[in-house]
Each structure stands twice: as structure tokens, then as C-alpha cells.
Amino acid sequence: MGTRAGACLRLAVLVTCVCTNAVTMAQELVRFESAPVRVGQLQQRLARERGEAPKTADTIEGYLAKPEGDGPFAAIVSLHGCDGLSKDDRKSIAQSVTGLGYVSLAVDSFATRGIKDACTKPMPALMLARQGDALGALSYLSKLPFVDPQRIAVLGGSMGATVALELASPHHVETFDAPRDLKFKAAVAYFPACGFASEELVVSTLILIGELDDWLPARDCELWMKRRADRGAPVKLVVYPGAYHAFSVPAFADGREMYGHWLKYDAEAARKAVEETQSFLSVQFSR
Predict the structure, then answer these.
(1) In total, how many domains does the chain have?
(2) How far apart are the C-alpha atoms of 225 and 227, rounded to whole Å?
(3) How many angstroms separate the CA atoms of 117 and 247, rounded?
């Protein structure tokens, strides 16, 4: 899924948003613990017998930004793609999200793990760890006095979107050692791999993908929608005609081939996707 500039890439999904109240927002580097995978009593005993020390939670970095005022505000946890979180990306995310009136926490799953990118080979353990990172970010935000803990959503692009769908699936609840009473209010996934999601989701979800995406095909999402047959939480799938993978990333204005796949920015699809996202989050956060 992707390269340094490509598909699973950056979470540049809201940068085309034109927000009249958006200003340059100060970002604060914060650190929090990733939610660890829950270990059963048997595994714990065997580890002790082997003389292994208990595994400590990973420390993760993120970039926090908030709108002006005291709140409490709704918040968005944003998940980057396979090439990590660049300085420009996190600035764009902060400005766009705070411009909508929400607190933004852009999670950097790679910095403290010493990962440059994860674009060229499958990394199941990392995908699982990134779910824990997002849950750690959720817990961190829930403790801030200016955040409404009942109105926190997760939003990702490509690899990050796939992680968001996994978080919207019920299986993660028992997997991680995280507060049971704390969960994401909603999930937004830009061009994800829908096959990673359970057929019944536990939170309302918006999926946005291009018709001509030949990296993570829209057809897979359409088949997944048919299999789930409206079970579980509501899901809206929007397929943009004529749009390719990474349709919301302006860096691909001229189109680019990467690893045999075509990536191309589509201004009209990007604009409509931002409108869908704004409308969806507004409804979810008002409930």
C-alpha cells in the first residue's frame, strides 16, 4: 500500500476544505501510551516462567491543536498513512480540523518506533499496534478539560483508514487493555481496504473511495456492504465516479504511477468528500 508520496500515504484528506474560520493553529507535541494488547493469565504465567519482564506500553507521539475557546469541543484522532506523518501534513490537519471547530490529535505511530515507512510489505503487527495507538489517543483526549469525551471520532486515509475500520469493528474491544466505557463516536475512512473490517461495525462509519481505485478497489467495499446487509451500526459508502486512489491528495494533481497503480487528485471528488465528512461529523457529534 504506497510509497513516500503515495497511496497509503499521508492523511491529506481534509486539506482541500475551505473553512472561513480556519487560522494557523499552534500545535503541541504530546506523548501518551498506546493501549497494550490484552494478555491472558496463561500467557502471563508462561512469560514469568521464562523470566520475561512484563511488556510495557509503547509511548506514542502526537500533535494536538484546538480551536479558540474553552470548549468542551468534539475531537478527531487522525491516522497517517504508510509513509508517516510529515510536518506539512500535521499542519494541514490541524488547520482543517480546528477550522471545523474540533480539537485535532494527529497520531504519529512511527516516530518513537523508529519506522521510516511501512509501504512496501505487509506489517500485521504494526496494524494491530496502530489500533492501540488510536485507542491511547482516545484515552488521552478524554482526560483533557476542553474535550467532550463522548464526541471523539477517528479519521484516516488509506492505511490509516483501514486501521479506522478495524477500530470500528467489534473484535478490537476484547483485544486491547483499554477502558470499556470509552469508544469512538464515529469513523471516517478515505480509500480504505474494506476487507479488513468486520461485517458488523459498532460505530457509525463513512467510507469514501474512488470508482477507478486500482490499489484498494471500490468493488471490494461494495461487496463488503452487500455482505453486511445493513447489520450493525450505520455505514455510508460513497464511490466517486472517475476518481482514483488518493483522490483527495493535491500532490497528485498531474497523476502518478506507483507500484503499478495510478494515483490522481480529483478536485471535484475531494470537494464533495470534504462536504460529506463535514455533514457526517456534524450529525454524529450532535447526537
Answers:
(1) 1
(2) 5
(3) 21
State the number of CA atoms in the 13 A half-sphere of 145 facing the CB.
2
Q: Is the pTM of this model over 0.85?
A: yes
Range of the domain at 120: 55-286
Q: Where does the chain show beta strands of DSSP type E? A: 28-33, 59-65, 73-79, 103-108, 147-157, 186-190, 204-210, 235-240, 256-258, 261-263
Identify which of 80, 163, 178, 174 has the alpha carbon closest to the alpha carbon of residue 124: 163
CATH of the domain at 124: 3.40.50.1820
Three-state DSSP at 280 gives helix
Domain contains 6: no
List C-alpha distances in Å: 205 to 195, 208, 262: 15, 10, 26
How do 28-33 and 59-65 pair as beta strands? antiparallel
The burial class, CB within 10 Å (0-12 / 13-18 / 19+), for 253 is exposed
Question: Distance of CA 212 to CAs 5, 13, 95, 144, Å?
Answer: 19, 18, 30, 41
Q: Which amino acid is at 227?
A: R
Residue 200 placed within a domain: yes
Please list, in sequence order, all residues whose beta carbon lies within 8 angstroms of the beta carbon of residue 42, skipping any fewer than 6 positions away. none
Tell whether 9 is covered by a domain: no
User: pLDDT tens, 112-165?
Assistant: 999 998 988 778 899 999 999 999 999 999 999 999 999 999 999 999 999 999
pLDDT band at 3 (very low <50, low <70, confident <90, very high): very low
Q: Is 206 domain-assigned?
A: yes
Q: Cell 455482505 appears where?
A: 227
Residue among 75, 232, 250, 90 at smallest CA distance from 146: 75
User: And the C-alpha cell for 271?
Assistant: 470537494
CB 155 within 8 A of CB 220: no
